[in-house]
Design goal:
The protein is an alpha/beta fold and 317 residues long. The protein has one domain: Alpha-Beta Barrel (TIM Barrel), CATH 3.20.20. It is built from 15 helices and nine strands. A seven-stranded parallel β-sheet has the order 1-4-5-6-7-8-9. A two-stranded antiparallel ribbon has the order 2-3. The two termini are 24 Å apart.
Length: 317
Amino acid sequence: MSEYRTLRQKHSLLDICKRPELAAQVTLQPVDRLEIDAAILFSDLLLPFEPMGLPFDFVEGEGPRLENPIRNAEDIGRLRSFDPCDALGHVLETIRLLRPELAGRIPLIGFAGAPFTLASYAIEGGPSKHYARTKTLMYNEPHLWHQLCELLASVITDYLKAQVEAGVQAVQLFDSWVGALTARDYREFLLPHSQRILQEVKALGVPVIHFGTGTSHLLADLRIAGGDVIGVDWRIPLDEAWDMIGHDYAVQGNLDPTLLLGPVDRLLAGANNVLERAAGREGHIFNLGHGILPNTPVEHVQALARHVHQRTCRSAI
C-alpha cells in the first residue's frame, strides 16, 4: 500500500514494530482501505529473538539476518527467557492503542511464530530453501533440538498470553515453514511443543488459529496439535482439506496469493471455487493461503473482499 511505502521511506521495519504509534498506524491502514473482517497486529515473528539473545536485522532484498545463528549446545545454553511485558512491552502498547480504534468495528488478531519456524530462522541465520542446518541439528542431536523447542514454546506461550491480556481477541500461531517436515518428523520433533502452546493459550478463552503452509500431508497432525481453526494453503482443495481435518474444526484459507496478480475475472473465479468447496458451512474463514505479495494491486484486494462479502451475504463481525 502506498501509505505503508511512504512510512517505510522514513522508518525501518523494526523501527515501526518498536514504536507503538507507528505499528498501530500500519495495522489500521488496510482496515481503512479494505473491506476486511479483522485486523492483524502489525509486528514481526522474530521480535522475541532479541530479548532471547539473538539480535537480527532485515537485509534489503533478502529478509531477516541473524548476527550469531545457533550452531551448537553452547549457543542454545546462552539463550534466555524473558518477561514479554518488559522486553516486548511496545507490542502490548500497540495492542492497547488499537483496541479503542477498532471498538465496534472489527476484532484484533495477535500472533507469534511457532517453534519450527522460529528455530529454523535461529539455526539457518535467515531464510532457507532446504533447512539443512536445522534438520542436521534435529536429527543428529535431538536432545538439543528439544531443549531449544522447549525454550521457544515457553517464550511463545508467555508472549501470546501477554497479547491476550493486552486485548487481542484472537491469536494465530504461525508455522510458515513446517511443511518442510515429513509427518513422522513433525510428530517426533514438533507436535508436543506446538500442542503445549496451543493448549495453554486456548485455555484463556480466545479463538486460536493454527497456521502453516505446504501442510497437506500434515493436516491430521495439525488437528492433533490443536487450535480452533486450522489454516489451509492453496495446494489442496478446501473441501478435501476440511475432510482430513474434520468438520468439527473451523478452517482458514485457501486462495493462492498469486491470483491477486492476474486478471480480476480469474481472481474472482478462484474465490468462487473456494467458496463453492466450503459449501456454506459454518466455520470457514475466507483468506489467502499465505501472505499477500508486495506487488499486489490494492484494487484487486478491494475487489476480492467486496466479492466475497457479496457472495456470502455475511456482514463483517
